[in-house]
Amino acid sequence: MTTKLYYSPGACSLASHIALEESGIPYETHRVNTAAGEQRQPEYLKLNPRGRVPTLVVDGKVLTENMAILTYIGGGYPQAGLWPKTTWEQAQTVSMLAWFADTVHPSFSHLFRPERWVDGEDHQAAVKEKGRSTYEGYMREIDGILQGRKYIMGNQFTVADGYLLVFYRWANRTGVPVKGLANYTRAVETIAARPKVAKVIADEGIMLDR
User: Fold this and answer.
1) d(CA 69, CA 151)
2) pLDDT for 123-160, tens place per residue?
3) Domain ranges across the chain
4) Domain covering 87-194: architecture
């Protein structure tokens, strides 16, 4: 079986990259240069017509969207221990992934890419301001969820935990105060210290605090 992940350093694809490395599945990577617009080139659009990362190709079959990729890795390789055992806990994990992908991530897009949502500088400034306050609120919500937990779903490291590093890094890059969130910062430090996670961070050449 051949598995290849298309990713961009520090993008939301970091979550899938971490899950793949933690799973132990043999895989290859292709770094997509989004700054140069590689995601909009015909060759990449043949794989992912939406022009986004991540994209996972398994034996020639294409899977897009973090939530789907993370579910595939977690549920398809239970021996890796990245997926809860009971159906209820699995559903809770999917619920968390859905919230991350459908709510938290778009709020950051309003802050970081307001031109995707509205035209005009004044409108974009308003969207950006609202996005910032909304995203900061979600960071505090994550901090609250992590109260008394080692990882986002409890004491088990799951495919959902890579997303915590994505959002934490994005907050630091845009001046959203997360370092003062004790539970969130503790969880990020714990996750980043895992050897396989540290390897992915090094491979992508990113830092979490800026």
Assistant:
1) 20
2) 999 999 999 999 999 999 999 999 999 999 999 999 99
3) 3-80, 87-194
4) Up-down Bundle (1.20)
- pLDDT, tens digit (0-9, with 9 covering 90-100), for 164-187: 999 999 999 999 999 999 999 999
Distance of CA 175 to the CA centre of its chain: 19
d(CA 25, CA 159): 14
Q: Tokens for 135, please give them.
A: 């995203």
CATH fourth-level superfamily of 3-80: Glutaredoxin (3.40.30.10)
Q: What share of the chain is helix, strand, coil (3-state, %, to 5)?
A: 60, 10, 35
CA 161 to CA 84: how far, in whole Å?
A: 13
What values do phi and psi take at 30, rounded to 5?
Answer: -130, 120
Report whether pLDDT(20) > 80. Answer: yes
State the pTM of this model: 0.96
**Which tokens belong to 34?**
């989004």
Rounded to 5°, angle at Cα 58 from 53 and 60: 100
Helix axes 13-23, 66-76, angle to 10 degrees: 10
Instruction: Tell me, yes or no, if the two domains 3-80 and 87-194 fold the same way.
Output: no
Listed in sequence order, the residues at least 6 apart from 32 whose beta carbon sits closer than 8 Å to its beta carbon are 6, 7, 8, 38, 39, 44, 53
